[in-house]
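This protein record is not my work; I was only asked to verify it. Take the sequence as given and treat only the tokens as open to question. I have pasted the whole thing underneath without changing anything:
***
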Amino acid sequence: MHVFITGGTGTIGSAVVAELLGNGHTVLALARSDASARALEGAGAKVLRGDLADLDVLRSGAAQCDGVISLAFGRDYGSAEALARGVAEESAALAALGEELLGSDRPIVTVSGTPWVPGRASTEADPLPTDGPVGGRGRSVMALLDLASRGVRSTAVRMPRTVHNEGRGGFAGLLTETARRTGVAGYPGDGSQRWPAVHALDAAVLFRLVLESAPAGSSWHAVADEGDAVRDIAAVIGRRLGLPVERVPQENFGPFGPIFAADQPASSVRTRDALGWRPVHAGLLEDLENIRP
């Protein structure tokens, strides 16, 4: 399959590109910079220059390929306004890609977060939230899945709050960055809240499986660790960086503060049973041991 991918140089995207190329697929990847283009070409992908706001470029990429994986998201998370702009840009991109695929029965795989459900681990059957800081993302993903009735094999892979590789990435990575900046390995709330996690290389396998065979309109959970306590995550970060581990106000984490403070475990039982997905790489707490002081 010839696959158009956006976000192909990120923690998830670079692993997905390698997984696709290693399993007989070819890749056309969106690149917004010379550095990204070089990285993608070095990995073996062909490059289409442009960024997520170039809707005509996105349509062109989708038109040239047998399937699409949409992973790109804005890089600015510093304020609620910046996060909202990123969600709006992603929503417009998904709409353009979906429109290009109408009536073709070609697959498109998009990404979202796992939902959180009070008192239990969320499952693939639980709906995405449509309010809050990233509610627009839930609405755009659901709109894409609705295209299943219009001849698009649209699917979604729901990612946990931390997608990690070599101790970097995701919400745990943001905790590490904050700890380096402030001198404290801090966590919001009482630290008992749980975050699901997955290694990027395991997530990449699931994206390939969903692209190849998942039915239209379906959602899947790329969850390896159902839920690690945030204070346990902070404890490893603090030990690796030689910093104190302390409770801090959730406001320290900007627009992500309410999300960081939420208990949000997630299950992937249905995904494993239906698609035969089996995570094999290091769990989050083990992988965080790769953090360099």
Summary: Residues 2-162+198-224 form a domain with the Rossmann fold fold (CATH 3.40.50.720). The longest strand covers residues 107-113. The chain has eleven helices and twelve strands. The chain has a mean pLDDT of 94.
